[in-house]
């Protein structure tokens, strides 16, 4: 049973959304700094993508092992645990102990994101009054994608214009985490009679038969969209400083921020369009964005890359929120949590495996060739998914 305790006298859903945003910002904070790590430690672009992919491994592991844990122990304990993992991740980066600690930092960051994905989203929704549920749903989506976008923007500005480029971004984030801990301590608990640290019960991969016809195309759309997010956060800094010749880290952070800005805007439009239309339209907008990204690599134009990032992010946001809405509506109530966790597992696989492929392709094709191959493959996947959804639209009751 979910209730709200003392909601009128304690911080509400905007405070929970702020905590969510701070936590997610930490997961993308290293994005504009990978070039500096490469100079300092001397590893390849392939290793950059592997370091990034470790993050997705952490997220997927938590989703499978503890995706519904906050339903049992309460939202606040899980939020505190997520903030602790985020702080430990920052400490790993601050220690500058070489590649092993970079891997450890990214893995801990993945644990943090996996815990935040369920607990923070639920807390934001549950703390909102009934008349503000829709606004709270967008607040959760905006906190998620907005936080992911603000991480590289903050790190890029601090690394470019302030001292200690490999330290100050993480010190700043630790300060924000302290504020977030205070907010969590003040938040009311929304789970009635929480258990006291019960044993973990891994839920595995769950897709009930009633949801499979909706889950398939929705998962493909999420995979394609998250592939673009993975490219943006793991490889875009190398694209910007390599083929485009821009070495300003603040610009790099702003380019990555534009993808998540577009995603937030796309998610805000999904409800107006309805999931049934937003899902195929989002796929086609994503394809247009990927075409612009590819064009920017050929023409070496930074404005075209930014336009592609915004457009691709818009399509990703449209398709992602529509896909999530559709999957949640299609799944029976007793399997809804597990089905949504499985959906996120597919999405985070999309953020990791294709990006590692790009890193491997750079060895044979160079950065530009790898980027063009990647955009072509993801565009084909998104196009096929969009065409399929136009020919066989989702059932009206699942599409909103």
UniProtKB/TrEMBL annotation:
Pfam families to which the protein is assigned, alphabetical: MFS_1 (PF07690)
Membrane topology of the entry: Multi-pass membrane protein
UniProt keyword Transcription regulation, yes or no: no
TM stretches of this protein: 12-34, 46-66, 78-97, 103-125, 137-162, 168-187, 219-240, 246-266, 278-299, 305-331, 343-365, 371-390
Ranges of residues in domain Major facilitator superfamily (MFS) profile: 11-394
SUPFAM superfamilies per record: MFS general substrate transporter
Subcellular location: Cell membrane
Keywords on record: Cell membrane, Membrane, Transmembrane, Transmembrane helix, Transport
Alphabetized PANTHER family for the sequence: MAJOR FACILITATOR SUPERFAMILY MFS_1 (PTHR23517:SF13), RESISTANCE PROTEIN MDTM, PUTATIVE-RELATED-RELATED (PTHR23517)
Identification of the protein by name: MFS transporter
Organism: Streptomyces olivaceiscleroticus
Upper lineage: Bacteria, Bacillati, Actinomycetota, Actinomycetes, Kitasatosporales
């Amino acid at each position: 049973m979910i209730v709200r305790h003392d909601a009128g006298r304690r911080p509400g859903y905007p405070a929970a959304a702020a905590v969510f945003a701070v936590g997610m910002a930490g997961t993308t904070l290293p994005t504009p700094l990978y070039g500096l790590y490469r100079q300092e430690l001397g590893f390849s672009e392939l290793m950059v993508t592997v370091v990034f992919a470790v993050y997705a491994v952490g997220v997927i592991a938590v989703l499978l092992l503890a995706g519904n844990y906050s339903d049992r122990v309460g939202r606040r304990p899980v939020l505190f645990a997520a903030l602790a993992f985020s702080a430990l991740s920052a400490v790993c980066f601050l220690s500058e102990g070489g590649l092993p600690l970079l891997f450890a930092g990214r893995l801990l960051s993945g644990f943090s994101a996996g815990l935040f994905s369920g607990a923070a989203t639920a807390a934001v929704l549950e703390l909102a009054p009934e008349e503000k549920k829709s606004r709270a749903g967008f607040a959760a989506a905006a906190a998620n994608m907005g936080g992911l976008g603000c991480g590289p923007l903050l790190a890029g500005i601090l690394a470019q214009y302030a001292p200690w480029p490999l330290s100050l971004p993480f010190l700043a984030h630790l300060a924000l985490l302290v504020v977030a801990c205070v907010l969590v301590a003040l938040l009311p608990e929304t789970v009635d009679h929480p258990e006291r640290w019960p044993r973990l019960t891994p839920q595995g991969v769950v897709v009930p038969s009633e949801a499979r016809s909706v889950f398939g195309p929705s998962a493909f759309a999420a995979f394609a969209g998250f592939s673009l997010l993975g490219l943006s956060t793991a490889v875009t800094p190398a694209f910007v400083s390599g083929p485009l010749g821009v070495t300003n880290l603040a610009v790099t952070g702003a380019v990555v921020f534009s993808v998540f800005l577009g995603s937030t805007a796309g998610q805000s439009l999904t409800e107006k369009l309805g999931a049934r239309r937003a899902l195929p339209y989002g796929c086609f907008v994503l394809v247009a964005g990927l075409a612009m990204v590819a064009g920017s690599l050929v023409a070496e134009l930074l404005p075209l890359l930014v336009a592609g990032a915004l457009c691709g992010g818009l399509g990703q946001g449209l398709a992602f929120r529509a896909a999530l809405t559709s999957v949640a509506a299609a799944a029976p109530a007793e399997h809804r949590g597990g089905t949504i966790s499985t959906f996120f597992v597919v999405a985070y696989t999309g953020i990791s495996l294709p990006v590692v492929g790009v890193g491997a392709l750079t060895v044979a094709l160079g950065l530009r060739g790898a980027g063009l191959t990647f955009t072509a493959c993801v565009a084909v996947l998104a196009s096929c998914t969009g065409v399929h959804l136009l020919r066989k639209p989702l059932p009206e009751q699942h599409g909103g």
